[in-house]
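Quick one, probably user error.
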């Protein structure tokens, strides 16, 4: 099974935006992580520690609206680059195949590898300019 969810990027007002979305859709956040919760990594651009690294708001049957504040080093967001598609396969081999397929002819933003939160994760932009995130949590495998 594969879940596909929108992932929104903001230039510092992610928390405000998601409070607005929560007022529209209702419900509670299933995850809120801030940049100060990340382990130190010299390869990751610095960010205001209180800004949102990841937030998730369930909005329907298995659907989740997700987002984050884009690190300042990557520049401000603009229409067209502020939306990513998050793919969440439950099979690890399928997840890697999907990531490699989407990255073919495009650009890898973050290599597909084990992330500090325990999932296999990678980001890429396909050859058509669409931004993708592939996340496989081995604890959710079939």
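Nope, works fine. Designed sequence:
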């Amino acid at each position: 099974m594969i879940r596909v969810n929108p992932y929104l990027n903001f230039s510092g007002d992610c928390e405000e935006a998601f409070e607005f979305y929560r007022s529209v859709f209702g419900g509670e956040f299933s995850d809120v992580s801030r940049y100060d919760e990340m382990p130190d990594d010299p390869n990751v651009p610095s960010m205001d520690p209180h800004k949102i690294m990841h937030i998730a708001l369930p909005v329907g049957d298995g659907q989740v609206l997700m987002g984050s504040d884009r690190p300042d080093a990557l520049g401000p967001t603009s229409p067209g680059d502020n939306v990513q598609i998050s793919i969440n396969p439950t099979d690890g081999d399928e997840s890697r195949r999907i990531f490699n397929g989407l990255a073919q002819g495009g650009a890898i933003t973050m290599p597909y590898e084990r992330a500090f939160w325990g999932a296999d994760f990678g980001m890429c932009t396909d050859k058509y300019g669409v931004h993708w995130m592939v996340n496989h949590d081995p604890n959710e495998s079939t």
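The mean pLDDT is 87.
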